[in-house]
Amino acid sequence: MLVSTALPPSSIKPSANVASTNISEISIDMKRKKFTYSEVMEMTNNLERPLGEGGFGIVYHGVINGSQQVAVKVELLLRVHHINLVSLVGCCDERDHLALIYEYMSNGDLKHHLSGKQGSSVLKWSTRLQIAIDAALGLEYLHNGCRPSMVHRDVKSTNILLDEKFSAKLADFGLSRSFQFGDEYHVSTDVAGTPGYLDPETGRLAEMSDVYSFGILLLEIITNQRVLDQTREKSHIGEWTAFMLNRGDITGIMDLNLHGDYSSHSAWRALELAMLCANPSSEKRPNMSQVAFELKECLTSEISMKSKDQDMDSQSSPEVSMSCDTKGLPSAR
User: Known catalytic residue: 311?
Assistant: First the structure.
């Protein structure tokens, strides 16, 4: 359990019935003790009173044995549990040696598979949509399922890991920070992340920063273009996609490695969603719940179209199949 305790800041006075000569002795004893998570929740009254931010977690006020005040630093990783987040299996905390042990993701990261390097197979369009859904659900949990809420701050293709069934999980919470809206506790507004994925509105830490990064990730999944590429007419993937959209031809935007094996309807829908997420104005972006819902609709549409195409093929009616595939296409934006 990576939970550390220390004496509170000087602004917090120890209880009057604890002699000052004994405080250092109590502190030394505490450094030697391992507390269970339930004990930590009890001493902090369910993380009720945040004091500030440490290097790897939030510091909360706590009381031991009803009298001794302490500052408790709680590692963010310990309270994050979701099927679409890489799990922390265990840890080593011995003197100056610290190690975190995570579950093994046998298929590596998403960027590796998009690149097609080292003989990796090309990901099908439906698989890409499912990976995007998995990543979106992981972010949705951080934003809505954690208390206090968390922003990931480094959403990118190398932080999307794939297991043996190509189910996707978000990894690398080293930059994660907690936040809440309104008058509630807010930890950090420091700029963090990877160039190209960074929210243009960097003045405030909020979930919409993750939404922007996810939009860039989704463009990467759709186009298999580099996020930043100085050899393109438009170096940033968002600007390049907007430039290509003006031509109204989705085939010039979609990953050529797909060889057109996708429903135009689901492709346009995913593309428009990605551009909405990557909108420079945070007020115009959807939240991750909306993103996850829309992606599920895209996948449902893709599966439905593929099923219809197969039925049409079996009846030897390619003309009808083409008509079904292009019906209801959204216009280029």
Answer: no
pLDDT at 186: 44
Sheet with 57-64, strands from edge to edge, namely: 3-6, 68-75, 57-64, 50-53
Tokens in use for 327?
């019906």
| 259 Rama sector, left if φ>0, alpha if ψ -120 to 50, beta otherwise | left
Helix (H) / strand (E) containing 241: helix 237-245
User: Which residues make up the CATH 1.10.510.10 domain(s) of the chain?
Assistant: 110-326
> What is the predicted pLDDT for the residue at 21?
40
Residue the block writes with tokens 């990557």: 278
Architecture of domain 110-326: Orthogonal Bundle (1.10)
d(CA 38, CA 45): 10
> Residue 93 pairs with which residues in a beta bridge?
98
Distance between terminal CA atoms of the chain? 51
Read off the amino acid at residue 94. E
Full-model pTM: 0.70
Q: In which residue ranges of the chain is CATH 3.30.200 found?
A: 3-78
Assigned CATH topology for domain 3-78: Phosphorylase Kinase; domain 1 (3.30.200)
Contacts of 292 (CB under 8 A, 6+ apart): 133, 136, 137, 140
Q: At 29, which helix (H) or strand (E)?
A: helix 20-31
Q: Collapse the DSSP code of 62 into the 3-class scheme (helix H, G, I; strand E, B; otherwise coil) and give the result.
A: strand
Q: What CA–CA distance (Å, rounded) separates 114 from 14?
A: 56
DSSP letter, residue 124: P
**What are the angstrom distances between the C-alpha of 217 and each of 183, 212, 214, 274?**
31, 9, 5, 8
What's the helix, strand, coil split of the chain in %, to 5? 40, 15, 40
pLDDT mean for each 10 residues of the chain (333 residues): 43 38 44 66 86 63 85 65 81 66 86 77 93 97 84 91 94 61 45 81 76 97 96 94 89 93 94 96 95 97 84 57 35 39
The residue annotated as part of the active site, out of 154, 199, 210, 255, is 154
Strand (E) or helix (H) holding 91 = strand 88-94
